[in-house]
Amino acid sequence: MPAYETVIGLEVHTQLMTHSKIFCSCSTKFGAAPNSNTCPVCEGMPGVLPVLNKQVVEFAIRAGLATGCAIANQSIFARKNYFYPDLPKAYQISQYELPIAEHGWIDITVGGVHKRIGLTRIHIEEDAGKLLHEYPGEPAGKFSYVDFNRCGTPLLEIVSEPDMRSPEEAKEYLITLKNILEYLEVSDCNMEEGSLRCDANVSLRPVGAEKFGTKVEIKNMNSFRNVQRALEYEVERQTLMLESGQIIAQETRLWDADRGMTFSMRSKEEAHDYRYFPDPDLLPVNVSDDWIERVKRELPELATAKRQRFVSEYGLPEYDAEVLTASKHLANYFEECVRLFPQAKTVSNWVMGDIMRELNAQNADIRNCPVTPAHLAAMLKLMDAGTISGKIAKTVFDEMYASGKMPDEVVKEKGLVQISDESALEGIIASVIAANPNSVQEYRSGKAKAFGFFVGQVMKATQGKANPQVVNTLLKQKLDAA
Predict the structure, then answer these.
(1) What integer pLDDT is reported at residue 9 of this predicted model?
(2) The pTM is what?
(3) Which residues face 266 on adjacent strands?
(4) pLDDT tens for each residue of 160-212
(5) Which residue segment(s) compose the domain that 274 sits in?
(6) What is the strand order of the sheet 70-71 is part of?
(7) Residue 20, SS3 per DSSP
(8) Which residues are within 8 A (CB) of 136 and not within 5 positions of it... i.e. 6 or more apart?
(9) Do residues 119 and 173 touch, judged by C-beta distance below 8 A?
């Protein structure tokens, strides 16, 4: 039995999918030239006044309701004061004492065990800018540059309770949270672009103890896999220190993915003195019960409900339903295919097989798949009608994926129509049987494998175009004939 229990809590920042920033009309579009999406408000010029983006509040309510939180009828913005070069006002507008949402939960499943992870709070805040320590055309390490484009970008900070007991649980929590946010369409959760960022607090305590151990914060984790790796490393590091009698320092550590280890960034006191106080330029946010009820009515079907419906409505295995609902866009793709070709399990097999294989190989998203639901459904209809065989369909699919052509066009261009005409196949079968007398004797002496040999020879002779069912029937008739 392990001597220590792991305690993990996560702080997740997710960028909201608004067109403009939280307190001004500047664009939130990613990838713009440095300092081009800025104005006096987000640059913190003296005398400017912030104006709250209502869509930010709506998105926060949506996220809070979807995670079981209580939505506050009144919340306030506070100034979080600290100095850093990427923070032009020298304070960040956030929420402290009265956040927009509190006391929710996220349900996860790890190793077949279901668990509820508590949420302490969800609050709204603005993002800071970005420091660039290298810039094209400039000597590396000589200067640092500041890009204020991200200043004022709206964020939700989602703070969990310290309820996770393993790195695997932390990873599953993040995957589930990302899934919820994407289904709600409040964030694109793109970790590469900084739309979803995670800090982890991890400590160890003796098994059975109630008091938490010394907390270490880990930053700079840019993927779910790296979150798990960083936590695994940190748990091992702290375990070895405790077993050797060393004291864990309360600190912030950075994750180095290349070296697979964390290293100390700065020591951390018991609490930062950010000197929070209510922002005098922003009125309290009043959220009426009617507003909350309207947002609740308009919540979309989330992954858990969709997964259950895929099983009950379409008769899919639970595994299929889980895979297909892992992404809202993938689930929508599947349902559109089924609408066009109402054989859910057949569609599921192709989406989870050939479609996902190609997308994963190219690290692509289903939204960029050249085989649209119309493509896939049309191909499946050709199979269902007997125009092409399952084997030919693989060739058609590959060509569709490569060229974007519709399946009937591919079949016509490449002459892939399945041969089902019995008179045409009888001649080919007769030739194959005549050419292989020894195999005929083997079959008639009870060697079942010989039958598969004949099927293969007929398919080879027809370049895979023969209808397998017709071939099997005719072959059996001919071989069994006296």
Answers:
(1) 97
(2) 0.84
(3) 252
(4) 999 999 999 999 999 999 999 999 999 999 888 888 999 999 999 999 999 99
(5) 4-291
(6) 70-71, 101-110, 113-126, 154-160, 4-15, 196-206, 216-221, 251-256, 261-267
(7) strand
(8) none
(9) no
SS3 content of the chain, % helix, strand, coil (to 5): 40, 20, 40
What pLDDT, in 10s, does the model give residues 121-146? Answer: 999 999 999 988 877 777 777 888 99
Averaged confidence pLDDT in the chain? 91
**Phi and psi (nearest 5°) for 397?**
-60, -45
Number of structural domains in the chain:
3
With a cut of 80, say whether residue 352 has pLDDT above it: yes
Whether residues 190 and 74 share a domain: the answer is yes
Per-residue pLDDT averaged across 234-245, rounded? 95
Q: Say if residue 73 is in the same domain as residue 142.
A: yes
The rounded distance, in Å, linking the Cα atoms of 264 and 335 is 48
Q: 215 φ, ψ to 5°?
A: -90, 135
Nearest to 438 by CA among 428, 447, 429: 447
Letter for the amino acid at 225? R
The set of residues, in sequence order, having a beta carbon less than 8 Å from that of 298 and lying 6+ positions away, is none
196 and 69 within one domain: yes
Token pair belonging to 209: 């103890």
Q: Is the pLDDT score of 409 beyond 80?
A: yes
Percent of the chain clearing pLDDT 90 (strictly above): 73
Which position has the token pair 């209809």? 381
Measure the CA–CA gap between 169 and 173, rounded to whole angstroms.
6
Amino acid of residue 80: K
* AA identity, residue 397: F
Q: CA–CA distance from 49 to each of 40, 41, 72 (Å)?
A: 9, 7, 25
Q: Are residues 113 and 200 in the same domain?
A: yes
Residue 254: partners with Cβ closer than 8 Å, 6 or more residues away? 218, 219, 220, 262, 263, 265
Distances (CA, A) of 131 to 38, 90, 164: 15, 15, 32
